[in-house]
Amino acid sequence: MEPISSDKLRTEMKQVPLRALPRVFLPGLDLEQVPFELPKEEVEKFRKVLRLAEGDQIAVLPNDGSLIRCEFRARQAWPLVTESPNTEPELKLTLAQAFPKGDRLDTILRMGTELGISGFVLFPAERSVVRWDASKIQEKRRRFEAIIREAAEQSFRSVLPTLEFAGSLADLLKKEPHAVFLSEFEGVSRKLSREGVTMTIVVGPEGGWAPREVAQIGDRGVSLGPLVLRTDTAGIAAAAALLIR
User: What crossing angle do the helices spanning 104-115 and 231-243 adopt, rounded to 10°?
Assistant: First the structure.
């Protein structure tokens, strides 16, 4: 590798703003193994889609909040400097979403990631139309994780949101006993507001909660206002209210 002078490095870094760098997440990256080997699909994306040339700069994200400015060479990333972009929200917000119909989850995951949601928990409510067995969940997980990754790279996230599945509302409440629910009922006086540094908000299915689930929810309901929002709108609206600074 031809050494890069400090003057040339400073000049090149000034010419390429962090937000303009093509980005790739490499969770679990061994920072001692230099240069970094890039996955085949990422190399093809850089060359065929983004039309990068040898020596162009890219950003490698180890999924720890840092960003490593690198040179793209062949199938490798040669590190130049590590930076801390500080793009992650202070509030660690989890969105628990009952399965909606069609491809609405794609939109929820993409937009939620772009807004800064830290994690997603997906689960079937009693009135959810969608029902997936274990093999279908694994298939969906791969698709959803790809959507999250692409949205995180596009939106300049430095940490990938997590993705989990729960078997039911009861299972979700065991894991998240302090979750708040976006209420579908009139007369709820408690307004949605930030609570601490971690928070979970829950959105129900298109058909609403079944009576047994209403009993489980109890007094955890919060209001977003008088309007009735669709299941794929409510969680995103709540996230925007809590996360946008």
Answer: 0
